[in-house]
Amino acid sequence: MATLKRITTLTKTLNMLTASSRTSSFTASKKSYFTYVNEPSMPIPGHEPCWLKTADEAIEQAELDSDQSVFIQGAAATPSELLRAMTDYGVRCDVRNVRLYHMHLEGPALFAKPENAKHFRSISLFIGGNVRPAVQAGTADCIPIFLHEIPRLFKEGYVKPDIALIHVSPPDDQGYCSFGTSVDCVRSAVCHSKYIVALVNKHMPRTFGDAIIHVSHLDFAVEHHQKLPVHPVKTPCKEELQIGKYIAENLVVDGATLQLGIGSIPDAVLSQLTKHKDLGIHSEMFSDGVVDLVNKGCVTNNMKTMHKGRIVGSFCVGSQKLYDFMDNNPFIGESVFSKALIQILSRSECTIQAMTVAEMLVVDYVNDPKVVAKQPNMTAINSCIEVDLTGQICADSIGPKMYSGFGGQLDFITGAAISEDRLGKPIIALQSTTSKGESKIAPCLKHGAGVVTNRAVARYVVTEHGIASLFGKNLQQRAYELIQVSHPNHREALEKAAFERLKVMPAP
What we know:
By secondary structure, this protein is an alpha/beta fold. About 30% of the residues lie in helices and about 15% in strands.
């Protein structure tokens, strides 16, 4: 074993010293699709990454070229330094029409600037704010798709990446890195990419579940140690706190399994759950509020029938506290669990978080509506842009302008609606008005707006003015319920509009 480690160390050193001279020999041994068993946790015998000193060298060695497809890992794991190097190289070498496939990315997106449109075309699987102007200007594009179906794009060959740009933790003694904060569709993408270029960062949390990739799967690797992007926790406003209170007191029961996104409304809901017991988390993403509930003993995952005792997620963005919670948090045995329980009872928080583990799994499993439906008391809480008086939910566009994407909303809303225990609660939560005072509950969706959650699946719509229960209600009753939770300043106009549309006055 000691000899093997010395050989591995020597190989890495030689790689770093002779990277530039290895280009031709590496080119001669390029991987083709399915050359190896595409299981990231299985070592590839005889294969070592080419370790390079800078991201610029890594992009150059990977031979980025015109008309290629590139996959980019997203969320908190966005490999920003590789993106910077890719953009610089593309402009300098005048590569054209490189298609970039990615979910939401953090940090600057220089490749999406208007002056770089001839070099790169971003194709979002979920639109983030840094590429939104490009999408709306037509210099970038998006694919409307359920979050749980994104891995199919790579598995079934709809997208064949020439290069995957990823962000991982350093390899451990056995050579295993971790995708860290973002597993989602990354596993599927790297399994079907010709080259894998990795940013290796000691600040990337080491997570488990489906997050493990052996270093031998990396073709090029560069160490770049930088803190992950953080989303500061904002104090919810009074309207958001009221929404959280309505949901916590009326719709979330002890033992419920929760799905929440990121933002002020999910944080407001979580802040109101401090008296609940045995909550579970099964969510494509989770944030700092979940960690707070773990430390208070409210989230134990004890009532789960699947992944009992474990938080299940697929990606996350939050504060450093969240990343510290996730880092190297393995499955804990029964004896430690018992000790943690004693700490809860004695109101000490020093070891509680060890009892609840964050397990990062692929998004085609986490978000599969059939899997979601198996969770006990599945309570899915999502937000939206606008709701019409029949219960249609727009969450991906403002009129015809694309804003975000399908994401996991319909995955979880559907899973909760068809829950096997018939106790699921699909919830749409939103403030009743925009920042300009316009009603988010509208007679009809704006012209060109997209329907993400259809009126048949919508169950509960919650604003700061109450809860509208829609299941089993006809159009006349639905309009009444939704008007009751709209802002009082808009109710009269909504009633008139409802009569014009339905030819009958809204009624309970």
